[in-house]
Amino acid sequence: MVSPADSETAAAYGLHPFAEITDGQPVLDQEDDEALAGSYPQVSLVLGADLDQGPGTLFITTRRVIWLQAAQPPGGYAVDYQTITMHALSQDPEAFDRPCIYAQLEASTSGEYDENDEEEEVSPELRLVPADSAALPDMFQKLCECAALNPDPGQDDDDDEDGENDFFYDEDEVLAGAGAEQRAARLNHYDALLQMPSADQFQEMVEDDDKFADAEDDEDRPLDQHPNGQHQPAH
Fold first, then answer.
1. Residue 146 belongs to what H/E stretch?
2. Residue 199 in domain
3. 222, part of any domain
4. What are phi and psi of 175, to 5 degrees?
5. How many domains does the chain have?
6. 19: number of Cβ within 10 Å
7. Angle at the Cα of 178 (from 120 to 83), degrees rounded to 5?
8. What is the pLDDT of residues 175-227, one digit of tens each?
9. How would DSSP label each residue in 63-110?
10. Who contacts 109 (Cβ-Cβ below 8 Å, separation ≥6)?
11. Could you tell me which of 64, 123, 161, 194 has the fewest CB atoms within 10 Å of its CB?
């Protein structure tokens, strides 16, 4: 059951109380073209490390994530995709005792979460824990697809279209959902992209400048002076 105290805590995590329910289904925002992408029963919502809200049904829509508790009275929480700053599959028993989807949310600007946090700022986190872990891949895929439909409104659209932001990844985003071999391959790939030349390699590149100078001289020669006697295309 979602108690008032739990609601206050959830609000500090960026969650909104949700009570628009008909026949056990959330009422979607038709004016915003909200559509249901997937629903998953027996999914527990855990706030922070251990604030378990109990089992409920998870609804992933094209605009938000909605969780409705199984207990009475009906009710639950919703979170906008813009509030979710990172999400990943978590299957490490040392991180959490059950396979789940782990998510970090934007820190609340009001409420007890920030006011009582006198140490370093920590992003609020939650976990979606299905009773049947076989549902996790589909849950994660739907979450990724719908999150992509809701980019941060402060993001520069021009940069996205040009692909200029595609290289910048958080390590958790790069490794989210990858197996051991995939993780190793991805890390090697990004390390290779950032590989700096050795001193010997750098010296070779400097010496190669003479080759480029020779090529430029060839282009300036008359046609009959080229070694192959053929026309050299202009660049």
1. helix 136-148
2. no
3. no
4. -95, 0
5. 1
6. 13
7. 40
8. 454 455 555 554 554 444 444 444 555 455 445 555 445 555 555 555 455 44
9. SEEEEEESSSSP-EEEEEGGGEEEEEEE--TTT-SS-EEEEEEPPPSS
10. none
11. 194
Distances in Å between the alpha carbon of 177 and those of 45, 56, 171, 185?
Answer: 20, 24, 12, 14
Query: Which of 10, 163, 174 minimizes the C-alpha distance to 79?
Result: 10
* Statement: the pTM of the whole predicted model exceeds 0.70: no
Give 152-216 as a DSSP string. -TTS-HHHHHHTTTTT---HHHHHTT--HHHHHHHHHHHHHHTPPPPHHHHHHHHHTHHHHHHHH
Say how many Å lie between the first and final Cα of the chain, rounded. Answer: 72
Euclidean distance between CA atoms 227 and 218, whole angstroms: 9
Residue 224 belongs to some domain of the structure:
no
Residue 231 sits at φ, ψ, to 5 deg, of -65, 135
Classify residue 93: in a domain, yes or no: yes
What residues make up the domain containing 134? 4-151
Q: Are 20 and 96 in contact (CB under 8 A)?
A: no
pLDDT (tens digit per residue) in 80-137? 999 999 999 999 998 999 999 999 998 765 444 444 544 445 689 999 999 999 999 9
CATH at 74:
2.30.29.30
Distances (CA, A) of 163 to 54, 158, 169, 200, 231: 41, 9, 13, 33, 38
